[in-house]
Amino acid sequence: MSEVATAVEFDHVPCPFCGLVCDDLQVVRTGAALKVTKNGCSLAVTGFERALPATSPQVGGRDVSVQEAVAEAARLIRKSSSPLYGGLSTDVAGMRAVMSLADRSRGTLDHAFSSAFGQNMKVLQSAGWITSTLTETRNRADVIVIVGSDVHALHPRFFERIVRADTTMFEETDKPLTVVFIGEGLDQSAASGPRVGKVVTLPCPLHSVDEVMGALLARMRGNKVSGDNVAGVPLAAIEGLAKTLSDAHYSVLVYTPAGLHTDDSDLTVHAICDVVRLLNKTTRSAGLSLGGDEGATTATSVCGWQSGFPTRVSFASGAPDYDPITNELPRKLAGNESDLLVWLASYSPDLAPPDTDVPTILLAPPAMTPPNAPAVFIPVGTPGLDHAGQLIRCDSVVSLHLRDLGRSKNPSVASVLTAIEAAL
Ligand code: SF4
Question: How far is CA 260 from the centre of its chain?
Answer without folding.
Answer: 14
